[in-house]
Design goal:
By secondary structure, the chain is of the alpha/beta class. The chain has one domain: Winged helix-like DNA-binding domain superfamily/Winged helix DNA-binding domain (Arc Repressor Mutant, subunit A). The chain contains 5 helices and 5 strands, in the order βαβααααβββ. The strands form 2 sheets. It has a 3-stranded parallel beta sheet. The radius of gyration is 17 Å and the shape is elongated.
Length: 120
C-alpha cells in the first residue's frame, strides 16, 4: 500500500477549525475519518522554500535507495556535504524525512501530494 503525505496551504485558523470539527465529530460518536498524513504551509512561498527542486531530488533519491547517512546521500547526489546536510535539516523540520533507529535518514512517503486551492 502506498504511503502518501498531503501537502496543502492553510493558515492557522483553517487548521484550527479542521481540528475543532474533528473533535466535535468524535465527541458526538460519529465515525472518524481515516487518518491522513498532512503537512500544512502558511503560504505558497513557505511551501516552495521548503520543497525546492534540489530537496525534492534528495527525497526521491532517499526513497529509491533506502535509508542513508547524510555523507552517503551527498556522495550519491554529487553534492556538497554541507548543502545536503542543510537540506536534510529543513526536510526533517517539516517531517518529510525521519531518522531510523540507527540514526539513518529515511523518506517514508511514496508520494508527496500537493494541493493548492485557487479560491477560498
Amino acid at each position: 500500500m502506498d504511503k502518501d503525505i498531503k501537502v496543502e496551504i492553510r493558515d492557522s485558523e483553517e487548521s484550527g477549525q479542521e481540528f475543532i470539527k474533528a473533535w466535535h465529530r468524535a465527541e458526538a460518536g460519529e465515525a472518524v475519518e481515516a487518518p491522513v498524513d498532512r503537512l500544512y504551509f502558511q503560504d505558497l512561498g513557505a511551501l516552495l522554500q521548503a520543497l525546492t527542486p534540489r530537496r525534492l531530488e534528495l527525497l526521491k533519491r532517499l526513497h529509491d535507495d533506502g535509508s542513508e547517512s547524510v555523507r552517503a546521500l551527498a556522495r550519491k547526489l554529487s553534492r556538497d556535504y554541507k548543502n545536503v546536510y542543510n537540506d536534510v535539516q529543513a526536510l526533517e523540520r517539516v517531517g518529510l524525512i525521519v531518522r531510523t533507529a540507527g540514526k539513518l535518514l529515511s523518506a517514508p512517503w511514496d508520494r508527496v501530494v500537493a494541493e493548492i486551492r485557487l479560491a477560498a
